[in-house]
Write a structure and sequence with these properties.
Order of helices and strands: EEEEEHEEE
Number of helices: 1
Helix content: under 10%
Radius of gyration: 14 Å
Largest sheet: 4 strands, mixed
Structural class: mainly beta
Number of domains: 1
Mean pLDDT: 97
CATH topology: Immunoglobulin-like
């Protein structure tokens, strides 16, 4: 199965195309596994972040560059920004299952859940 993410910009009602995202393994010291820019559908252009052979039991962090994305969209943000980055820490208990980590985000709020 593997690990995937998807970001929706709730301010504009559209996928968050162009947002920068980084994936870290955080079991022990944080290690950058992948950095990418979301495609027009708000997803990793290469598909899965980690496939079923690479995904391991442990802790991970997704870092979403929220302020940079909204500034690039022309949104006037206060300084300092209310949300600069959204850091989502999550655990993978069973790497044989699919872990989908969606983010719904505006300059002032976000929500996430374990999707399918």
């Amino acid at each position: 199965m593997g690990l995937s993410t998807h970001v929706l910009d709730t301010m504009h009602g559209a996928p968050a195309a162009g947002m920068r995202v980084s994936l870290f393994a955080t079991t022990g010291d944080a290690v950058l596994l992948k950095a990418f820019v979301l495609n027009q559908d708000g997803r990793n252009p290469d598909g899965l972040l980690l496939d079923s052979t690479t995904l391991q039991r442990g802790s991970y962090r997704l870092v979403f560059e929220v302020a940079g994305y909204f500034k690039a969209r022309g949104v006037a943000l206060p300084e300092p920004n209310f949300l600069n980055q959204v850091n989502l820490d999550f655990g993978v208990a069973d790497p044989a299952q699919h872990y989908h980590v969606p983010l719904l985000v505006s300059p002032w709020s976000y929500s996430t859940y374990r999707g399918s």
